[in-house]
Amino acid sequence: MWSDKELEELLRKIPNITDVEKEIAPADFTNLRFTLIFPGTKWCGSGNIADGYDDLGKDNETDACCRQHDFCPDIIPAGETKYNLTNESFFTRLHCSCDQTFRKCLRTVNSVTSLKIGITYFNAIGTKCYKKDYPVTGCRTRGGWLGSKCVEYIYDIDGEMRYQWFDVPNY
For the Phospholipase A2-like central domain, which residue ranges apply (predicted)? Predict the structure, then answer.
């Protein structure tokens, strides 16, 4: 998966791209992308292909985890700002509690499909979540793919709690 900066650089290299195409906002890109749904599910991927809330795929337990994740009540859509945080990603970002619930749900299901989805979402995509916590002053321990994630943060416990981005844990 490309970072926002890598994708932006790639777009600059495409010959004959118009100035208008260069100005596509992350929210616009999100609306343009096609839907990718994990096989055997209707809710696991970008968007959903379900006919209604109760419509689940053949991997219904895993699909129920994804549906619950999709209905997280605290989100920041691509290109939007909330809690003084701007989501510069092409994907919606969720409150860390929703990602924690999703991870726990997938691990409880403990199937091949839930394992693949967990590894894809938490390890491969390398998304971030947000929560209110003491100000982060650094990273004590790095992990994940090539040490790209902070797995243990250093906090200023004397500072005022505020919303911040955090790396999601590995699956």
Answer: 25-140
